[in-house]
Amino acid sequence: MTMYTYEEGYRIGEKPITLEIVETILSKQIDDLEPRLTRHGYNVRSLAEQFNAKPVEIKRLLRGELDATRTQELTDEMLAAGLPL
């Protein structure tokens, strides 16, 4: 649970902080690819540089909009490099 969750619980006077409060505050996309890579220190620029890709390709990959062939290529390279996909 994050400090923000505790602060929000305090702000609304909720004690103890319930699962329902936590679920309303935390993002539903917390385990999506982009947030997961960001938590590990990877951003669009660093991914583009490391995998010889254009930033627009990385953005499309993260949004699930990149063509299947290129998605597979980048995913294979990222997995080989040990990224948490």
List the helices and strands and how they pair.
Blueprint: H1 3-12, H2 19-25, H3 33-39, H4 44-50, H5 55-63, H6 68-80
Helix pairs in contact: 4-5
List keywords for this structure.
elongated, 85 residues, XRE family transcriptional regulator, mainly alpha, 6 helices, 2 domains
Explain what the structure shows.
The model has no long low-confidence stretch (mean pLDDT 85). Helix 4 crosses helix 5. The radius of gyration is 17 Å and the shape is elongated. By secondary structure, it is mostly helical. The chain is built from 6 helices and no strands. It has 2 domains: 1-28, no CATH class; 31-85, no CATH class.
Cα shape: elongated
Overall structural class, as computed from helix and strand content, comes to: mainly alpha
Count of domain modules: 2
Low-confidence residue ranges: none
Order of helices and strands: HHHHHH
Average residue pLDDT? 85
Which value, in Å, is the CA radius of gyration? 17 Å
- How much of the residues is beta strand, in percent? under 5%
Major β-sheet annotation: none
Helix amount? 55-70%
Got a strand count?
Answer: 0
Q: How many angstroms does the end-to-end distance come to?
A: 23 Å
Count of DSSP helices? 6
Q: How would you sum up this structure in a few lines?
A:
The chain is mainly alpha-helical and 85 residues long. Helix content is 62%, strand content 0%. This is XRE family transcriptional regulator.
